[in-house]
Specification:
Translation Initiation Factor IF3; alpha+beta; 2 domains
Amino acid sequence: MTNAPLISVRGEAVLEVEPEIARLSVHVQTQERDRRTALDRLVERNQRCLELIKSYGDAIEKLETGGLSISPQLKYRRKEGDIRAYQGTVWIRLVVVDFAALGELVTRLGDLERTYVHGPDWGLRRDSEVYKRAARQAAGEAVERARSYAEALGARLTGLVELADEGLTSDTRATAQPMAVMAGYGAAPRGGADEPQAIDLEPATQIVRAAVEARFTATPPDLEQEVS
């Protein structure tokens, strides 16, 4: 055990950066009186939606189907078997990295028949360099703060005892909820006269925070010195 004085500090960093990705959720629906017809319509609309998304190529970083359901709609809640229609839903999730194409993609998806679009949800990739940069800045601030305390006492740092990561978190400055678009009952081909105008979307600033707690050893302080 050492009897060297210890200086305990906390270092924090807050970075404001532009988002790297935008997440969209797309729900494709159908409702028909016949189960097979409902399923066939759902397959067609799902394929049309996927083809539209894939046409944007590298602008889409990730595309996956989150789930599918076909459920009967009853005429009366208390009478089993009295079915008035069958409703089908496919849930598609995608990650967009080209924000220049995002506005056009959102409006074109929203123009598809019985298609619902939720988003964009702005964010950073899990392995983003921003998190590492924030952690380094937080550690650097801890060292500077400990050195400042030591100098105020007429001492100097001699070693690091412990450095603990207090955690990394991120959030967005914008407080508005993601936009939701409900489609109509017709869709125009790309480049057609009735093509919807691309909506202008402004990326929400991402705020990344990092904090560390550290303990340093120091030389004995000179408590008789005058504090300037």
